[in-house]
Amino acid sequence: MLSYTGGFVLLAALLHASWNAMLHGNDDRLLSMTWMSIAIAAVSTFVVLFTPWPADAAWPYIVASGLVHIVYNVTLVRSYRRNDLAQAYPIARGSSPLLVTLGAALFAHEAIGPLHILGIAMISGGIIAIALEGGRVSLAGALAALMTGVTIAVYTVIDGIGVRLSGGQALAYTAWMFLFYWLMPVLFIATRGLAPLWTPVRTAPMAVGSSLVGGLVSIAAYGIVIWALQSGAMGAVSALRETSVVFAVLIGRMFLREAVSGKRWLACVIVAAGAVCLGV
User: Fold this and answer.
1) Are 179 and 41 contacting, i.e. CB atoms less than 8 angstroms apart?
2) Which of 80, 87, 143, 235 has the lowest tally of Cβ within 10 angstroms?
3) Per-residue model confidence as pLDDT tens digits over 88-116
Protein backbone atom coordinates (compact mmCIF):
# COMPACT_ATOMS: atom_id res chain seq x y z
CA MET A 1 0.00 0.00 0.00
CA LEU A 2 1.14 3.55 -0.66
CA SER A 3 2.35 5.25 2.49
CA TYR A 4 -0.30 7.99 2.59
CA THR A 5 -3.05 5.39 2.09
CA GLY A 6 -1.63 3.33 4.93
CA GLY A 7 -1.53 6.42 7.12
CA PHE A 8 -5.21 7.09 6.51
CA VAL A 9 -6.08 3.45 7.25
CA LEU A 10 -4.17 3.71 10.55
CA LEU A 11 -6.25 6.81 11.34
CA ALA A 12 -9.34 4.74 10.55
CA ALA A 13 -8.03 2.09 12.95
CA LEU A 14 -7.80 4.63 15.77
CA LEU A 15 -11.28 5.94 15.00
CA HIS A 16 -12.65 2.40 14.87
CA ALA A 17 -11.20 1.48 18.25
CA SER A 18 -12.61 4.71 19.68
CA TRP A 19 -16.21 4.10 18.66
CA ASN A 20 -16.02 0.48 19.80
CA ALA A 21 -14.85 1.72 23.20
CA MET A 22 -17.79 4.13 23.28
CA LEU A 23 -20.14 1.25 22.50
CA HIS A 24 -18.57 -1.10 25.04
CA GLY A 25 -18.58 1.60 27.72
CA ASN A 26 -22.38 1.97 27.62
CA ASP A 27 -24.51 -0.32 29.78
CA ASP A 28 -27.23 -0.89 27.16
CA ARG A 29 -25.18 -1.68 24.07
CA LEU A 30 -28.11 -2.42 21.79
CA LEU A 31 -29.57 0.98 22.63
CA SER A 32 -26.17 2.59 22.06
CA MET A 33 -25.69 0.81 18.73
CA THR A 34 -29.16 1.93 17.65
CA TRP A 35 -28.40 5.59 18.35
CA MET A 36 -25.04 5.22 16.60
CA SER A 37 -26.90 3.81 13.62
CA ILE A 38 -29.37 6.69 13.63
CA ALA A 39 -26.46 9.16 13.42
CA ILE A 40 -24.83 7.16 10.62
CA ALA A 41 -28.06 6.84 8.64
CA ALA A 42 -28.98 10.52 9.10
CA VAL A 43 -25.60 11.71 7.81
CA SER A 44 -25.80 9.27 4.91
CA THR A 45 -29.28 10.50 3.99
CA PHE A 46 -27.88 14.01 3.71
CA VAL A 47 -24.80 12.93 1.74
CA VAL A 48 -26.72 10.97 -0.93
CA LEU A 49 -28.57 14.16 -1.86
CA PHE A 50 -25.34 15.78 -3.02
CA THR A 51 -23.32 12.92 -4.51
CA PRO A 52 -23.47 11.31 -7.96
CA TRP A 53 -25.32 8.05 -8.47
CA PRO A 54 -23.01 5.01 -8.14
CA ALA A 55 -22.60 2.88 -11.26
CA ASP A 56 -25.32 0.27 -11.77
CA ALA A 57 -22.86 -2.60 -11.32
CA ALA A 58 -22.23 -1.53 -7.71
CA TRP A 59 -25.83 -1.73 -6.51
CA PRO A 60 -26.00 -5.46 -5.71
CA TYR A 61 -22.93 -4.97 -3.53
CA ILE A 62 -24.38 -1.88 -1.83
CA VAL A 63 -27.51 -3.82 -0.88
CA ALA A 64 -25.62 -6.93 0.21
CA SER A 65 -23.13 -4.95 2.29
CA GLY A 66 -25.85 -2.88 3.95
CA LEU A 67 -27.69 -6.02 5.07
CA VAL A 68 -24.51 -7.74 6.26
CA HIS A 69 -23.62 -4.63 8.28
CA ILE A 70 -26.90 -4.95 10.18
CA VAL A 71 -26.03 -8.56 11.03
CA TYR A 72 -22.59 -7.34 12.10
CA ASN A 73 -24.10 -4.73 14.43
CA VAL A 74 -26.23 -7.35 16.17
CA THR A 75 -23.40 -9.87 16.54
CA LEU A 76 -21.05 -7.16 17.82
CA VAL A 77 -23.50 -6.18 20.55
CA ARG A 78 -23.93 -9.85 21.49
CA SER A 79 -20.17 -10.32 21.61
CA TYR A 80 -19.68 -7.35 23.94
CA ARG A 81 -22.28 -8.75 26.32
CA ARG A 82 -20.05 -11.78 26.87
CA ASN A 83 -16.52 -10.35 26.88
CA ASP A 84 -14.32 -7.44 27.89
CA LEU A 85 -13.39 -5.02 25.11
CA ALA A 86 -9.80 -6.29 25.22
CA GLN A 87 -11.06 -9.84 24.57
CA ALA A 88 -14.03 -9.58 22.20
CA TYR A 89 -12.56 -6.87 20.00
CA PRO A 90 -9.28 -8.73 19.23
CA ILE A 91 -11.03 -12.00 18.36
CA ALA A 92 -13.48 -10.26 16.07
CA ARG A 93 -10.89 -8.11 14.37
CA GLY A 94 -8.05 -10.65 14.38
CA SER A 95 -9.96 -13.36 12.57
CA SER A 96 -11.04 -11.11 9.69
CA PRO A 97 -7.80 -10.27 7.78
CA LEU A 98 -7.02 -13.89 6.92
CA LEU A 99 -10.65 -14.46 5.89
CA VAL A 100 -10.60 -11.28 3.81
CA THR A 101 -7.38 -12.35 2.09
CA LEU A 102 -8.93 -15.72 1.23
CA GLY A 103 -12.16 -14.11 0.04
CA ALA A 104 -10.29 -11.56 -2.08
CA ALA A 105 -8.27 -14.35 -3.72
CA LEU A 106 -11.39 -16.40 -4.45
CA PHE A 107 -13.78 -13.68 -5.58
CA ALA A 108 -11.58 -10.78 -6.75
CA HIS A 109 -8.57 -12.83 -7.96
CA GLU A 110 -6.18 -10.76 -5.86
CA ALA A 111 -2.58 -11.85 -5.45
CA ILE A 112 -0.45 -10.72 -2.53
CA GLY A 113 3.31 -10.80 -1.97
CA PRO A 114 5.19 -12.90 0.61
CA LEU A 115 6.03 -9.94 2.85
CA HIS A 116 2.41 -8.87 2.93
CA ILE A 117 1.35 -12.43 3.74
CA LEU A 118 3.82 -12.37 6.65
CA GLY A 119 2.41 -9.03 7.81
CA ILE A 120 -1.17 -10.29 7.70
CA ALA A 121 -0.19 -13.47 9.58
CA MET A 122 1.67 -11.44 12.24
CA ILE A 123 -1.25 -9.08 12.72
CA SER A 124 -3.85 -11.85 12.91
CA GLY A 125 -1.70 -14.00 15.18
CA GLY A 126 -0.82 -11.12 17.48
CA ILE A 127 -4.43 -9.99 17.68
CA ILE A 128 -5.72 -13.45 18.57
CA ALA A 129 -2.92 -13.83 21.14
CA ILE A 130 -4.14 -10.60 22.74
CA ALA A 131 -7.61 -12.07 23.06
CA LEU A 132 -6.62 -15.51 24.29
CA GLU A 133 -3.87 -14.44 26.71
CA GLY A 134 -4.90 -15.51 30.18
CA GLY A 135 -7.42 -18.08 28.94
CA ARG A 136 -10.43 -16.20 30.28
CA VAL A 137 -12.55 -16.26 27.14
CA SER A 138 -15.55 -18.60 27.34
CA LEU A 139 -16.46 -20.81 24.40
CA ALA A 140 -19.74 -18.96 23.92
CA GLY A 141 -17.94 -15.62 24.07
CA ALA A 142 -15.27 -16.73 21.61
CA LEU A 143 -17.89 -18.02 19.16
CA ALA A 144 -19.86 -14.76 19.37
CA ALA A 145 -16.70 -12.74 18.69
CA LEU A 146 -15.66 -15.10 15.88
CA MET A 147 -19.05 -14.73 14.22
CA THR A 148 -18.51 -10.99 14.32
CA GLY A 149 -15.16 -11.53 12.58
CA VAL A 150 -16.86 -13.55 9.85
CA THR A 151 -19.35 -10.77 9.16
CA ILE A 152 -16.47 -8.26 9.04
CA ALA A 153 -14.70 -10.37 6.43
CA VAL A 154 -17.88 -10.78 4.37
CA TYR A 155 -18.73 -7.08 4.19
CA THR A 156 -15.10 -6.11 3.57
CA VAL A 157 -14.85 -8.38 0.51
CA ILE A 158 -18.26 -7.19 -0.71
CA ASP A 159 -17.25 -3.55 -0.35
CA GLY A 160 -13.82 -4.16 -1.85
CA ILE A 161 -15.45 -5.44 -5.04
CA GLY A 162 -18.43 -3.08 -4.96
CA VAL A 163 -16.52 0.18 -4.58
CA ARG A 164 -14.32 -0.74 -7.56
CA LEU A 165 -17.49 -1.08 -9.63
CA SER A 166 -18.97 2.21 -8.42
CA GLY A 167 -17.39 4.35 -11.13
CA GLY A 168 -15.03 6.07 -8.70
CA GLN A 169 -17.86 7.11 -6.37
CA ALA A 170 -16.50 5.84 -3.04
CA LEU A 171 -18.34 8.51 -1.03
CA ALA A 172 -21.66 7.82 -2.72
CA TYR A 173 -21.14 4.06 -2.38
CA THR A 174 -20.47 4.45 1.35
CA ALA A 175 -23.46 6.73 1.93
CA TRP A 176 -25.95 4.52 0.09
CA MET A 177 -24.68 1.44 1.92
CA PHE A 178 -25.00 3.17 5.30
CA LEU A 179 -28.63 4.09 4.54
CA PHE A 180 -29.43 0.51 5.56
CA TYR A 181 -28.58 1.54 9.13
CA TRP A 182 -32.12 2.93 9.34
CA LEU A 183 -33.05 -0.73 9.88
CA MET A 184 -31.43 -0.70 13.34
CA PRO A 185 -34.02 1.60 14.99
CA VAL A 186 -36.73 -0.37 13.20
CA LEU A 187 -35.40 -3.59 14.74
CA PHE A 188 -35.03 -1.96 18.15
CA ILE A 189 -38.61 -0.63 18.16
CA ALA A 190 -39.92 -3.98 16.94
CA THR A 191 -38.28 -5.82 19.84
CA ARG A 192 -38.46 -3.28 22.69
CA GLY A 193 -40.91 -0.58 21.64
CA LEU A 194 -40.52 3.15 21.01
CA ALA A 195 -40.39 4.33 24.63
CA PRO A 196 -37.11 2.54 25.53
CA LEU A 197 -35.49 4.21 22.52
CA TRP A 198 -36.80 7.72 23.12
CA THR A 199 -36.88 7.95 26.93
CA PRO A 200 -33.05 7.97 27.34
CA VAL A 201 -32.94 11.22 25.33
CA ARG A 202 -34.48 12.83 28.43
CA THR A 203 -33.16 10.59 31.22
CA ALA A 204 -29.63 9.86 29.93
CA PRO A 205 -28.72 12.55 27.38
CA MET A 206 -24.97 12.08 27.87
CA ALA A 207 -25.17 8.39 26.95
CA VAL A 208 -27.26 9.15 23.86
CA GLY A 209 -24.90 11.96 22.93
CA SER A 210 -21.84 9.73 23.20
CA SER A 211 -23.58 7.16 21.00
CA LEU A 212 -24.34 9.80 18.36
CA VAL A 213 -20.71 10.91 18.42
CA GLY A 214 -19.66 7.26 18.15
CA GLY A 215 -21.80 6.94 15.03
CA LEU A 216 -20.11 9.93 13.41
CA VAL A 217 -16.69 8.49 14.27
CA SER A 218 -17.76 5.12 12.84
CA ILE A 219 -18.86 6.50 9.47
CA ALA A 220 -15.57 8.39 9.15
CA ALA A 221 -13.56 5.28 10.07
CA TYR A 222 -15.19 2.94 7.57
CA GLY A 223 -15.48 5.59 4.89
CA ILE A 224 -11.69 5.80 4.90
CA VAL A 225 -11.46 2.01 4.58
CA ILE A 226 -13.82 1.91 1.60
CA TRP A 227 -11.78 4.65 -0.06
CA ALA A 228 -8.61 2.61 0.50
CA LEU A 229 -10.24 -0.55 -0.86
CA GLN A 230 -10.56 1.10 -4.27
CA SER A 231 -6.88 0.52 -4.97
CA GLY A 232 -5.35 -1.38 -2.05
CA ALA A 233 -5.31 -5.17 -1.68
CA MET A 234 -8.28 -6.15 0.49
CA GLY A 235 -6.30 -8.37 2.83
CA ALA A 236 -3.64 -5.73 3.39
CA VAL A 237 -6.19 -2.95 3.99
CA SER A 238 -8.12 -5.20 6.37
CA ALA A 239 -5.03 -6.22 8.32
CA LEU A 240 -3.77 -2.66 8.63
CA ARG A 241 -7.18 -1.54 9.81
CA GLU A 242 -7.17 -4.25 12.46
CA THR A 243 -4.15 -2.68 14.13
CA SER A 244 -7.02 -0.84 15.81
CA VAL A 245 -6.78 -3.69 18.33
CA VAL A 246 -3.63 -2.07 19.72
CA PHE A 247 -5.56 1.16 20.16
CA ALA A 248 -8.42 -0.81 21.75
CA VAL A 249 -6.03 -2.32 24.30
CA LEU A 250 -4.71 1.14 25.14
CA ILE A 251 -8.21 2.60 25.41
CA GLY A 252 -9.36 -0.36 27.51
CA ARG A 253 -6.43 0.17 29.86
CA MET A 254 -6.62 3.96 30.11
CA PHE A 255 -10.36 4.61 30.17
CA LEU A 256 -12.09 1.31 31.02
CA ARG A 257 -9.47 0.22 33.58
CA GLU A 258 -8.95 -3.19 32.03
CA ALA A 259 -5.77 -5.05 33.03
CA VAL A 260 -3.02 -5.43 30.39
CA SER A 261 -0.26 -8.00 30.97
CA GLY A 262 3.28 -8.09 29.61
CA LYS A 263 2.30 -10.86 27.18
CA ARG A 264 -0.50 -8.72 25.81
CA TRP A 265 1.88 -5.82 25.29
CA LEU A 266 4.25 -8.18 23.44
CA ALA A 267 1.40 -9.27 21.18
CA CYS A 268 0.73 -5.58 20.46
CA VAL A 269 4.35 -5.20 19.35
CA ILE A 270 3.91 -8.17 16.98
CA VAL A 271 0.81 -6.53 15.52
CA ALA A 272 2.73 -3.29 15.02
CA ALA A 273 5.58 -5.18 13.32
CA GLY A 274 3.07 -6.81 10.98
CA ALA A 275 1.74 -3.37 10.10
CA VAL A 276 5.28 -2.33 9.17
CA CYS A 277 5.50 -5.33 6.81
CA LEU A 278 2.33 -4.17 5.08
CA GLY A 279 3.73 -0.69 4.66
CA VAL A 280 6.91 -1.83 2.89
Assistant:
1) yes
2) 143
3) 666 666 777 777 878 888 888 887 778 77
Nearest Cα neighbor of 265 from 129, 94, 146, 136 is: 129
**pLDDT number for residue 84:** 56
Burial environment of residue 250 by CB neighbours within 10 A (0 to 12, 13 to 18, 19 or more): middle
Residue 107 has what pLDDT?
Answer: 86
| 86-90, 122-126, 148-152, 236-240: the lowest-pLDDT one | 86-90
Statement: residue 19 has pLDDT above 70 = no
User: For residues 86 and 130, is the Cβ–Cβ distance under 8 A?
Assistant: yes
- Rounded to whole angstroms, the Cα distance separating 103 from 57 reads 19
pLDDT tier, 1 (very low <50, low <70, confident <90, very high otherwise): very low
Q: Is 202 exposed, middle or buried (0-12, 13-18, 19+ CB in 10 A)?
A: exposed
Is 270 exposed, middle or buried, given 0-12, 13-18 or 19+ CB atoms closer than 10 A?
middle
**Under 8 Å between Cβ of 77 and 184:** no
